[in-house]
Design a protein that fits this description.
By secondary structure, the protein is mainly beta. The chain is about 0% helix and about 35% strand.
Length: about 1200
C-alpha cells in the first residue's frame, strides 16, 4: 500500500482456540487494508457486523490454519463504483490496480474450514473469495488446498467487479481427509494424508481417492463477473442461484467425486449469462433449472496454460429444466482435438424426458469433428444439427443414443513424435465377431497435449466421443499417415471409458465393445468393457496419473472393476436426494446424542448440535419459516440472522416468484380469473407491481395485448426495382436474419422494396431496421392487388443514424406492403436489415380508397412436358459431359424416417443421409433437376441399410416414369453403386426400391446424377426445354434473354412493366419478345427482329414448349400411384413446380373469408367491395373443396 498505514479496526490476533471470542453488532467505516480480521484463531464468532467503505479485505481470515470460526450475517458494502475516477471503488490507495492486493474483497479467507452463513457483499471488487493458501506461522505447516470445506451457506454476492463466490486456491481446492485439527492449532502433522491417493483404501473403500466431498449451499450471485473456481473437485453447488453474471459459473478443472455418486450442480438456478464448465470427469447437473439467455461452454479453459487434461468431459443432465438459451446459440464446444471437446447427454432412463434442451427424440450432442457418428444406420442414429437448428448446438452432432467420453492417456510424446489415433466402427450388434470386412465408418483423432506442441507434459493423449451400447463395436489403433500403417496401442498407456457414477447413480452401466490393438479387453477377449472398469490412481485433481497406474490400471487391464456404490445410503436412504451433499456436518461426533432434523452436529464442537438456518430455540424447534411458501415462494426469515424465538408474521413470511402472490405464494393472476392470459403461446404473462393486473411480455416477433400480432412478412415473396448485388437481394430483408440485408444500387433515389403477404391482413405496424444507408424521405404503402398502392404512413426527416423506425398503421389492411423511398440520407443507396410487418389474418375489407381493376383470365405460359423418354442425337457444339446435376435440387421421398429427409441425399454431404421408415419394401426417392438433361450415370452411395432389388427410372413430367437400369442382387453394406444410363434424357430421376437387403429400411448418403444440358448450357438464368421431339432451346428467366440467357435487362425498364397481367401481354402468337420501351409502355418484337438493350427491356422471352400429341405412358414404366406428389412434411417443403393459373372472375362472386377458403385457397379482392377464393393448383369450387388429383 506504498507508505499508507493500515487501519485494522477489529482484530483477533493469534488467540488460538477461543469459543468465547465474539465480534457482534459492530459498524466499521473507512478502514484501510483490513476491516475485521480473524488471525490464528479458532471457534470465534463474528456476527451481525456492518462494514462500509473499507479499502481492502472487509472480513479477513489471515494465515490459512484458522478452523471452525462462525462468520455469519455480516454485511460489506463499497459505496463507490469502480469507474469513479477519484475513489476507484474501494481499492487500496497507492496501488496501481484495484486487484493489486489479492484480498481486496468483502470476505476473504486463506482457510477453508470455517463457517460462512448469511453474509452479504455489495459492489466490492471481490465478493467471497476462498484463496486457499498459507502465510505467516502457517506457511509450510498446513495443506490449505486440501482442507475440508466448512459450512458456506446462504451468502449473497452482488455487483462485484471481479469474483462473486469463488475459490482460487494455490494448487486448487481439492478437500481431503487429513489430520488438521484445532488441537494442533490447525497445522497438519502427517502430510502423506494430503496426497490425492490412498493406497490402503481406508477412506473411501473400493477407491484410492482421498477426496472429502463438500457443498456450497443456497448461495446467491448476482451481477458479478466470475463465479466458481479455478481448479476444484469434490465440491458441489447446491441450491445455487446465479443470475446476470458475466460468467454464471467459471470453472477450469475438476474431478469425479470420491463418493462415486455426487453431482457437481444440484437443485440450482442459472439465468442470463455463460456457464464456463470445467474439464475432466463426469460433471452431473441434477434438478437444476436454466432460465432465459443461458449459454453452456464446454471445458472452457482446457489447454489454456497448463489447465485441463484431454478436454473431453461428459456433462450429464439429470432431471434438468431448460427454458431457453441465448438466441441461436445454446452451447460451444472448445479445446481438445480440433477444438471440439466434450459431450452433453441425458442421464440413463431419461432419454424421452421433455427437458427443453434436446429436441424430441435426441439425448446427446457432440462436436461436428466426430462425423463418424453420422453414419450410424439407426435405430440409434445421429444428425448434423445445423440442418434443422442452425448454430444452436455449435454445429454439433445430435444423437438419439448416449454419448460418452473415451480417453487414452499416453506418455513421453510430443506432437512431432505422436501418431494419429484411428477409430474404426462396425454398426452391428455382433460384438468383435461383427468386425468382418472393412469398417462401416472411420474417424481419425489427432494427438492432444496440454502446454504446447513441443512440451513433454504428462497431460497428453487422445480422446473422442463414443456411442455407448452394444449395437456397434470399435477397433482402435495408431495410424501413420505417411505410409498408411496401423500399429498397437502401447501396453503402458491408460484407457478410460465413461465413469462409474453412471452405474452407481442411475443403475445402468455404460457398455461398449472395443478392440484395442495390442490389448485383450473384456472377459476372455470378447471386447466388452463397462463404465465400472478400474480407474484407481488416474486423477485426484491435484495429482495426475500415479506411476503405479501406467500399464496396471484403467480399462483393458487385469485390474478388477470398481465396486458398485449404493448412492441412496450416502443420503440417508432417500432416493429422491441422490447426488446431493449436505452442508458440512459431523454426525459421528454426536453419536451418543444424535441431533434432530432441525439441527446439525458441529464439526468443531463435539457433542454439540447447532440449529440449521431457519430454526431457533433451545432444541431448534422454532421454525422461523412455519408458513409453507410452496413451490413458488421462499421464506424471507431463513437468512435474516438473529436468535428469533417466534415465527415471522405469515402475511409477510414468503417472498413470491414473479407472477405469484398470496401468503403462501399460491395465487397467480395470470392463471386464474378474468386476468388470466395465455399470450397465445407467443409470450409470457407477467403480473403488474400491484399484484392484481396482468400483461403479456411477447416473444421476439410478436406484439399485441395477447401476443397475437406477429411478423407476417418473414419468408414471404418480395421484390424491388433496385438491387446492388445478388447477395443483397430483396428476400434478405424478410429472412428473419439481422445479419443479412437488402441494398439498392448507389446513387438512385426513386426506389421501392415490397413484400407479398400472400393474402389480406389487418396490419398494425411496420418496423424497418435501417442500416446507415437510410432514406431521408419515404412512405409505407399498402395494396390488395400489387398494382395500386395507398400511402398510409410517411417520414420526411430520416437520417443515417435513425436505426429502427416503427410505423404504426392502426389496422390498415392489404396483401402487399411497400417501402417507397424518394430521397436518400447518404451518398449510397438504401439498405435495410429487416422489414417486419405485424398483423393478423382475417381482414375482409381492403384499404380505402381502393381502385378497381379488371379481372383477367390467364393462360398458363408453361405447357405440359413430354411424357416420353428421348435419346438425343449428337450435338454439333462441344458439350461437357458427366456434370453433377443433382446437388441441392428439389427432392421427395415416399417414406422418411425421423429427420433424415430426402434432401439429405442431395446436399453434397456424405455425413448426412436419407432414411426410409423401417419395415417398408415399396419405397422411392426422386430428384427434380429443374429441366431436361441428357443423363450419363447415377451413383448411389448406399449406407448399410440398402436395397436388394431396385430400379433407376426417369421422367420428363414427374408422373410417367421409365425404367432405364435395374439391380436385383443388392446386399447389406454393398457401398457405392454406379448405374450407367448411356444418354437417356429426363428431368425427374427416381430410385424405386422393391425389396430390402436388411431388417431396416433404405438409407442413402448421396444419390448423385451426372449428365449435361442438351442446350449446351443456359447459365444461371435459363432452363433448357424441348421445342420438338429432337430439338431443345433455352427458356430464359424474367429479365433475361439471348441464346444462353446471358443478356440482362435489369435497370432498364422504368415504366409499365411488372408481372403480367399488370405489364405486357405474353400471349401474342407472332411476338417472341416483349417488355417496356423507353417511354414506359409495352413494346413487341417480331420473329427475326433485333432488339436494342438501351431502349428495350425483355421481361419474358416466349418459348413454345413441345407437347407430345395424345401422350401415353411407356409400357415399361412403373406406375406412380401418386402423380405430382405433395412433399412429405418431414422432407423438403418445396413442391413440384406447377403453374398456378389465376381463377377467372365468377358471374356472381360470393364474399369469402380466409377461413371459408379451407386449406387449399386464398381469399382475394376482385373489386373494391368483393372477394373470392383463389384456389391452389388441382383444386376448384367456391370454397376450393373440389380436388382434381
Amino acid at each position: 500500500q506504498r507508505g499508507i498505514e493500515g487501519k485494522y479496526c477489529l482484530h483477533f490476533h493469534k488467540v488460538g482456540d477461543c469459543p468465547d471470542c465474539i465480534f457482534a453488532n459492530n459498524a466499521i467505516e473507512y478502514g484501510h487494508y483490513r476491516g475485521l480480521t480473524v488471525h490464528g484463531t479458532h471457534r470465534s464468532t463474528v456476527t451481525n457486523n456492518v462494514v462500509w467503505n473499507v479499502r481492502g479485505a472487509n472480513f479477513y481470515v489471515e494465515d490459512g490454519n484458522e478452523m471452525h470460526n462462525d462468520i455469519s450475517y455480516n454485511v460489506a458494502i463499497c459505496p463507490y463504483p469502480l469507474s469513479n475516477s477519484t475513489m476507484k471503488g474501494c481499492s487500496i490507495p497507492g496501488t496501481s490496480t484495484p486487484g493489486a492486493d489479492a484480498p481486496n474483497a468483502a470476505f476473504y479467507s486463506k482457510a477453508a474450514t470455517n463457517d460462512w452463513t448469511g453474509n452479504r457483499a455489495a459492489n466490492t471488487y471481490n465478493g467471497m473469495l476462498l484463496d486457499a493458501g498459507t502465510r505467516g506461522a502457517a506457511r509450510g505447516n498446513v495443506c490449505a488446498s486440501d482442507a475440508a470445506l466448512g459450512r458456506w451457506v446462504g451468502n449473497t454476492m452482488h455487483g462485484c467487479s471481479r469474483f462473486g463466490l469463488y475459490t482460487l486456491g494455490h494448487g486448487g481446492n481439492f478437500p481431503k481427509h487429513t489430520d488438521q485439527s484445532i488441537a494442533t492449532n490447525g497445522f497438519n502433522q502427517n502430510f502423506e494424508l494430503c496426497h490425492g491417493y490412498d493406497g490402503a483404501e481406508s477412506i473411501n473403500p473400493g477407491t484410492s481417492d482421498r477426496g472429502y466431498p463438500g457443498a456450497f449451499y443456497d448461495n446467491v450471485d448476482y451481477n458479478n463477473v466470475f463465479v466458481g473456481h479455478y481448479n476444484a473437485g469434490d465440491l458441489q453447488h447446491r441450491g445455487h442461484s446465479s443470475i446476470n453474471n458475466n460468467n454464471l459459473i467459471y470453472w477450469k478443472e475438476t474431478k469425479n467425486f470420491a463418493d462415486g455418486c455426487s453431482s457437481h450442480f444440484y437443485d440450482s438456478f442459472y439465468q442470463d449469462g455463460n456457464l464456463a464448465l470445467p474439464d475432466q470427469g463426469s460433471i452431473i447437473i441434477t434438478k437444476t433449472k436454466f432460465g432465459q439467455n443461458v449459454h453452456l461452454e464446454s471445458n472452457h479453459h482446457c489447454d489454456v496454460g497448463v489447465t485441463g487434461v484431454l478436454c473431453m468431459p461428459q456433462y450429464i443432465f439429470d432431471a434438468i429444466s431448460w427454458e431457453g438459451g441465448r438466441p441461436n446459440n445454446w452451447l460451444s464446444f472448445q479445446a481438445g482435438y480440433n477444438d471440439d471437446g466434450g459431450v452433453f447427454s441425458m442421464a440413463p432412463g431419461q432419454e424421452d424426458a421433455d427437458n427443453g434442451f434436446f429436441p424430441k427424440g435426441y439425448m446427446s450432442v457432440a462436436g461436428s469433428t466426430y462425423s463418424y457418428l453420422l453414419s450410424s444406420p439407426g435405430p440409434r442414429s445421429c444428425i448434423d444439427s445445423t440442418i434443422i437448428y442452425g448454430n444452436r448446438y455449435d454445429n454439433g452432432i445430435l444423437c438419439n443414443a448416449p454419448l460418452r467420453s473415451f480417453k487414452i492417456y499416453s506418455r513421453g510424446l510430443t506432437e512431432a513424435t505422436a501418431k494419429v489415433l484411428k477409430v474404426e466402427v462396425w454398426w452391428n450388434n455382433w460384438g468383435l465377431a461383427g468386425q468382418n470386412g472393412p469398417a462401416n465408418s472411420v474417424q481419425l483423432v489427432g494427438f492432444h497435449i496440454i502446454g504446447g506442441a513441443d512440451s513433454n507434459n504428462v497431460k497428453q493423449g487422445y480422446s473422442f466421443p463414443i456411442m455407448s451400447g452394444l449395437d456397434q463395436s470399435y477397433r482402435i489403433g495408431l495410424y501413420n499417415p505417411s505410409d498408411g500403417s496401423t500399429s498397437d496401442i502401447p501396453l503402458d498407456w491408460v484407457i478410460e471409458f465413461s465413469d462409474p457414477v453412471i452405474g452407481n447413480r442411475f443403475g445402468i452401466d455404460d457398455q461398449v465393445y472395443v478392440n484395442i490393438l495390442g490389448r485383450d479387453c473384456g472377459n476372455n477377449g470378447d471386447g466388452l468393457i463397462t463404465s465400472q472398469h478400474d480407474r484407481k490412481y488416474l486423477w485426484s485433481g491435484d495429482h495426475f496419473i500415479d506411476d503405479l497406474a501406467w500399464g496396471n490400471n484403467g480399462a483393458c487391464t487385469d485390474s478388477a472393476d470398481m465396486s458398485p456404490v449404493d448412492c441412496t445410503a450416502i443420503v440417508g436412504g432417500s432416493a429422491s436426494n441422490e447426488g446431493s451433499i449436505e452442508a458440512s456436518e459431523c454426525p459421528e461426533l454426536c453419536a451418543s446424542s444424535p441431533c434432530n432434523a432441525n439441527s446439525y452436529c458441529h464439526c468443531g464442537m463435539p457433542s454439540t448440535c447447532k440449529c440449521k438456518v431457519g430454526f431457533s430455540g433451545q432444541d431448534c424447534s422454532v421454525d422461523l419459516c412455519a408458513t409453507n411458501c410452496g413451490e413458488h415462494g421462499s421464506c424471507m426469515a431463513k437468512y435474516l440472522g438473529g436468535e428469533g424465538d417466534v415465527p415471522i408474521d405469515t402475511s409477510v413470511a414468503c417472498i413470491c416468484e414473479d407472477g405469484w402472490a398470496g401468503d403462501a405464494c399460491d395465487y397467480n393472476p395470470c392463471e386464474i380469473g378474468e386476468t388470466a392470459k395465455t399470450c397465445s403461446g407467443n409470450g409470457i404473462c407477467v403480473v403488474s407491481p400491484d399484484g392484481v393486473n396482468t400483461e403479456c411480455q411477447c416473444d421476439a416477433g410478436y406484439l399485441g395485448g395477447d401476443c397475437d400480432v406477429f411478423n407476417i412478412a418473414q419468408g414471404k415473396a418480395s421484390s424491388t426495382n433496385s438491387v446492388n448485388r445478388a447477395a443483397s437481394a430483396a428476400p434478405k430483408a424478410f429472412d428473419g436474419d439481422m445479419g443479412s440485408r437488402w441494398e439498392s444500387v448507389h446513387g438512385i433515389d426513386d426506389v421501392y422494396l415490397q413484400v407479398d403477404l400472400g393474402t389480406s391482413y389487418t396490419i398494425e405496424k411496420v418496423i424497418t431496421h435501417w442500416e446507415a444507408a437510410a432514406a431521408k424521405s419515404y412512405d409505407v404503402q399498402v395494396s390488395n392487388d400489387g398494382l395500386n398502392f395507398t400511402t398510409v404512413w410517411s417520414k420526411s426527416d430520416g437520417s443515417s443514424t435513425m436505426g429502427t423506425v416503427e410505423s404504426v398503421l392502426g389496422g390498415e389492411s392489404g396483401r402487399f406492403v411497400r417501402m417507397k423511398a424518394y430521397e436518400r440520407a447518404t451518398g449510397y443507396g438504401y439498405s435495410i436489415f429487416e422489414m417486419q410487418v405485424f398483423g393478423n389474418i382475417g381482414s375482409t375489407s381492403p384499404p380505402t380508397p381502393h381502385p378497381t381493376y379488371k379481372i383477367i383470365t390467364l393462360t398458363p405460359t408453361i405447357s405440359a412436358k413430354p411424357t416420353t423418354t428421348t435419346t438425343l442425337p449428337p450435338t454439333s457444339s462441344p458439350t461437357v459431359k458427366n456434370v453433377l446435376l443433382s446437388n441441392g435440387k428439389t427432392s421427395y421421398a415416399s417414406s422418411v424416417n425421423g429427420a433424415n429427409s430426402a434432401s439429405m441425399a442431395f446436399d453434397g454431404n456424405m455425413g448426412t443421409r436419407w432414411e426410409s421408415e423401417h419395415g417398408i419394401e415399396d419405397v422411392y426417392i426422386q430428384v427434380d433437376l429443374g429441366e431436361v438433361f441428357v443423363l450419363d450415370k447415377v451413383v448411389a452411395y448406399w449406407e448399410f441399410a440398402c436395397a436388394k432389388i431396385y430400379d433407376i427410372q426417369v421422367s420428363n413430367d414427374g408422373s410417367s416414369f421409365t425404367t432405364v437400369w435395374s439391380k436385383n442382387d443388392g446386399f447389406g453394406g454393398m457401398g457405392d453403386i454406379e448405374s450407367a444410363l448411356g444418354g437417356v434424357s429426363g428431368r425427374f430421376i427416381r430410385m424405386q426400391a422393391y425389396e430390402r437387403a436388411t431388417g431396416w429400411g433404405y438409407s442413402i448418403f448421396e444419390l448423385k446424377v451426372y449428365g449435361f444440358s442438351p442446350c449446351g448450357g443456359c447459365g444461371d438464368h435459363g432452363t433448357c426445354v424441348a421445342i420438338s421431339e429432337t430439338e431443345f432451346k433455352c427458356k430464359c428467366d424474367t429479365d433475361y434473354s439471348g441464346e444462353t440467357c446471358e443478356t440482362t435487362c435489369s435497370g432498364y425498364c422504368t415504366g409499365g412493366g411488372g408481372v403480367y397481367p399488370y405489364g405486357c401481354n405474353p400471349n401474342l402468337s407472332d411476338r417472341v419478345k416483349f417488355g417496356c420501351n423507353d417511354n414506359g409502355g409495352c413494346a413487341y418484337l417480331l420473329e427475326g427482329q433485333e432488339f436494342n438493350g438501351d431502349s428495350f427491356c425483355t421481361f419474358t422471352e416466349v418459348v413454345n414448349e413441345y407437347v407430345t400429341p395424345n401422350p401415353t405412358a411407356n409400357p415399361n414404366s412403373t406406375p406412380n400411384p401418386t402423380p405430382n406428389p405433395t412433399p412429405n412434411p418431414t422432407s423438403d417443403p418445396t413442391p413440384q413446380p406447377t403453374p398456378n393459373p389465376t381463377e377467372a372472375q365468377s358471374p356472381a362472386p360470393t364474399p369469402c373469408t380466409e377461413q371459408s377458403c379451407g386449406d387449399h385457397g386464398t381469399c382475394v379482392a376482385i373489386s373494391e367491395t368483393e372477394f373470392k377464393c383463389k384456389c391452389d393448383t388441382d383444386y376448384s369450387g367456391e370454397t376450393c373443396e373440389t380436388t382434381c388429383s
